[in-house]
């Protein structure tokens, strides 16, 4: 049982470097030397592989952009930590209320877990 792969829209070919063109030509040559009956299968597999590579390239590009964005967000925090560890910042009034609130919340959660564990015994 064989299925034909059909494209209903024109395919836009990506721009390729000289190295990529050379690799494509080698692949075309390899496929052309295969038995005619299996050539279509390998042509489609080759095209799918190319598409997967394009998606991977896009992923890498977007990942780099996201990493750069997150680095910008982390930079002030890292700078503040460095100032604190060096003793350049000694006023912690802006941070301590948040710490105290989080500490109280964690203690409440832990108390519930400990009580539940005691009840289980």
Quick description:
The chain has three helices and no strands. It is mostly helical.
Structure notes:
- It is a single chain.
- The protein is elongated.
- Helix content is 72%, strand content 0%.
- The chain folds into 2 domains: 18-90; 92-121.
- Helix 1 (18-32) packs antiparallel against helix 2 (39-85).
- It is mainly alpha-helical.
- The model has no long low-confidence stretch (mean pLDDT 87).
- It has helices spanning 18-32, 39-85, 96-120.
- The protein is built from 3 helices and no strands.
Main features:
mainly alpha; 121 residues
Strand content: under 5%
Q: Largest sheet, if any?
A: none
| Poorly predicted spans | none
Give the % helix.
Answer: over 70%
| Mean pLDDT across residues | 87
Number of strands: 0
- How many helices? The count is 3
Q: Which H/E pattern describes the elements?
A: HHH
Write down the domain tally: 2
Structural class: mainly alpha
Distance between the termini: 63 Å
**Rounded radius of gyration (Å):** 30 Å
Shape: elongated
């Amino acid at each position: 049982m064989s299925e034909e792969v059909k494209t209903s829209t024109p395919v836009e070919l990506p721009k390729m470097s000289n190295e990529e063109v050379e690799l494509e030509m080698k692949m075309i040559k390899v496929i052309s030397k295969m038995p005619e009956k299996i050539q279509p299968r390998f042509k489609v597999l080759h095209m799918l592989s190319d598409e997967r590579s394009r998606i991977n390239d896009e992923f890498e590009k977007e990942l780099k952009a996201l990493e750069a964005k997150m680095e910008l967000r982390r930079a002030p925090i890292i700078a503040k930590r460095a100032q604190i560890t060096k003793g350049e910042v000694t006023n912690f009034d802006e941070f301590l209320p948040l710490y105290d609130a989080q500490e109280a919340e964690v203690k409440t959660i832990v108390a519930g877990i400990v009580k539940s564990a005691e009840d289980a015994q």
